[in-house]
Amino acid sequence: MQPKYDLDKIKFATDRSTFEKAVNLYEKRKVTKFKEELHGYFATVLGTKPYKVYVDNRHYDQGDCECYLGQNDTLCKHMVAVAIHSAMGGKKLGEEDKRLVSKVTCSGRLGELSKGELSEVKKLITSAARYIKPYNGPSRVWFSYQNSLSEGCNRLSQIVSELPVSEQTAKLLVDMLLRLDDKLCRSGVDDSDGIVGGFIEETVQALKEYAELNPACAKAFSEIKGKETCFGWEEPLVKLIHSP
């Protein structure tokens, strides 16, 4: 029985500390007596003591664990380790599988995307941005909503951090920032915790590094000249348009 989620879902929707601890459990074969049953997976995870764990096959963060966190309705490393086992089928994790990017960085690599690569990246950005959606639910789903924003920004962070530096990719990122800004200003996204705003600021910093590495990248910033954004993130980029 294949779960409805995959490793990427687990990786991008889980906080770094919990994910890394779960990976450690999985790689050290601490997930034992794994079996599929009804609508989920049962296993015994060897931690400070053996913990019986259940994880739903549709939502990896729904289930039960005998540990302290699990008994207080908090997603724990034991549940995530079982979810990883279900998604990977017990296979070995590669280095890319374990790599979690939660902060935007500039790749520092000069170059352009091919037409096909550019099209694929645009699709990935659109898909990731869907997690950054309007909030119109009751208060009980607030934390779930914030998790969705985090997942969207984590997915986008990895995409952005892997891009080569060029005027082409600078324009791609400026367009992405304007779309996110529109979501914040006019589409009902509730960014009270500053998750999306933080991602935007990190991307702006990466674009400043783009312009240092390749001054032609600053041409892409002309698109935001004269625009007023939610919190003025465009200002440091606009200043670079006139730089010698």
TrEMBL record:
<keyword id="KW-0862">Zinc</keyword>
<dbReference type="GO" id="GO:0008270">
    <property type="term" value="F:zinc ion binding"/>
</dbReference>
<feature type="domain" description="SWIM-type">
    <location>
        <begin position="51"/>
        <end position="87"/>
    </location>
</feature>
<keyword id="KW-0479">Metal-binding</keyword>
<dbReference type="InterPro" id="IPR007527">
    <property type="entry name" value="Znf_SWIM"/>
</dbReference>
<dbReference type="Pfam" id="PF04434">
    <property type="entry name" value="SWIM"/>
</dbReference>
<keyword id="KW-0863">Zinc-finger</keyword>
<protein>
    <recommendedName>
        <fullName>SWIM-type domain-containing protein</fullName>
    </recommendedName>
</protein>
